[in-house]
Amino acid sequence: MRVLFVSYEVYPLAKVGGLADVAGSLPKALKELGLDIDVLMPFHGSVQNRGIENTGRTVKTRFVKKEYEFELHRTKLPSSEVDLYLLKNDELMNAPEVYNVSDLGLQAMAFSDAASVFASEGGYDLVHLNDWHTGLMAVYLDQIGKPIRTLISVHNLAYQGVYPENYLRISGIERDRWGMVSSGDNINCLKAGLIASDMINTVSPTYAREIQTSEYGAGLDGVLRERKDDLIGILNGIDSTEYDPAKDRHLWVNFDSKNVEGKAINKGHLQDFVGLPRTDNAVIGLISRLVDQKGLDLIAAIKEDLMELPLQLIVLGTGEKKYEGMFERLQVECPDKIAAKITFNLDLAQKIYGGCDMFLMPSRYEPCGLGQLFAMRYGTVPVVRLTGGLADTVKEFDPSSFEGNGFGFYDYSPEELLETLKKAIKAYEDQRTWSRIVSNAMEEDFSWKASARNYLAVYEKILEVKGDA
Which of 232, 262, 275, 394 is a Cys-bridge partner for 406, taking CB atoms 3.0 to 4.6 Å apart? Predict the structure, then answer.
């Protein structure tokens, strides 16, 4: 079995969100299971050309109205034997950011076309697509006519790649397929992938159920209900080698589950680093895109109450101006309570995971969520809304049995968030209780091993292959 894993971002070459972490880790875990797997991504303008070779080959689009030619480049995923291919076209991919380009719809369409040609010429049995940027590949592969099967992973159903009708007319998609790729008069790239792929997966079992409802289905719940027998939820993992508090060079002091004293040292240094006074109160981290999806309206509704609690809050992220401004104003009003870093900085993110006591994710919806997994790996206790992957990974602490790894609430309300934070702080103030919760969190295994086996089983089901890959 030969598999091509296609993603618009792959860590560490290009990272905007959690998709990059998945694409940089899952193929390595599958390779370790013996699978013959390669990765393909666009050669974005932001990709550093270090250790990447030009193969001398070119790949031309086959269907898009204007022909585009891509150079084929190659490297390896770090610390692995997985070949990573990149398709480069300077006309389409000259922007310094992954998604902030002049015409992302055209870029994704042309890339999907060329990637389909690459896959059809590469002897692959199955192509694993990721999110809307690659959704049209399922249609293009069908049009090529080779027996290549497809799986599409939905990392966030809200982003669908919807563009006006003129994109459909230049796509080269055959007219009898227009119904499967359109929503009204628009082309919908994700819908195309959902209908044309052999199977669909989301990145957590709970999210797979949620998106079949009108509340979470983002207008595609009908399509997903029709394909419910081909839809599965597989929980994301994390690269436990990359995210390891015992070896993480970003931390001031390394530590592990058997020696957690180093975490307190990191906490003090983190407070210094972000300009907060050293106190014994709980330090809560929030690393997030600052958008409605992440539940920040709940925080806005209780911000005065929040500042009255015995806690400090460290915020890292960018997003909507209303939330950036809210956190910046809170920092001015309560400089001893909140540090707002309106940017994204990987070094600081690791320090927050390593030095905070709690990690806050009150999401409106969360397909999987990786932040809570990173946090638990570093002994930082998650406080979350129990939706999507958060419901699958965070187990409410039970003081009677001392089981559980975090704190959560179901109803999307500011009152529920506030009460859950109070409950977590009360537990934090009991050293014996808190030590147990931290230990429970750090002992969780969210490595890619189990998830990779589940993906391999799906590949085999699609190809009706029995036995080893």
Answer: 394
Residues 6+ positions from 355 with CB-CB distance below 8 Å: 251, 263, 266, 267, 268, 269, 270, 271, 283
CB 390 within 8 A of CB 362: no
The pLDDT tens digits for 137-151 are 999 999 999 999 999
The residues pairing with 312 across neighbouring beta strands, listed in sequence order, are 283
Q: How far apart are CA 12 and CA 448, in angstroms?
A: 17
> What's the CA gap between 435 and 432, in Å, rounded?
5
**C-alpha 344, offset from chain centre:** 15
Residue 469 has pLDDT above 60, yes or no: no
Q: Report which of 180, 186, 187, 126 is spatially closest to residue 153, judged by C-alpha positions.
A: 126
Check if the beta carbon of residue 296 is closer than 8 Å to that of residue 290. Answer: yes
> Is the whole model's pTM more than 0.70, yes or no?
yes
- Which domains, ranges and CATH numbers included, belong to the chain? 2-237+448-463 (3.40.50.2000), 261-442 (3.40.50.2000)
**Per-residue pLDDT, 349:** 97
Closest listed residue to residue 47, CA positions, set 74, 9, 14: 14
pLDDT digits (tens, 9 = 90+) for 56-86: 999 999 999 999 999 999 999 999 999 999 9
Alpha-carbon distance 266 to 254, whole Å? 9
Strands in 311-316's sheet, in edge-to-edge order, are 338-341, 311-316, 282-287, 358-361, 381-385, 407-409
CA dihedral 371, 347, 27, 386 (to 10 degrees): 0
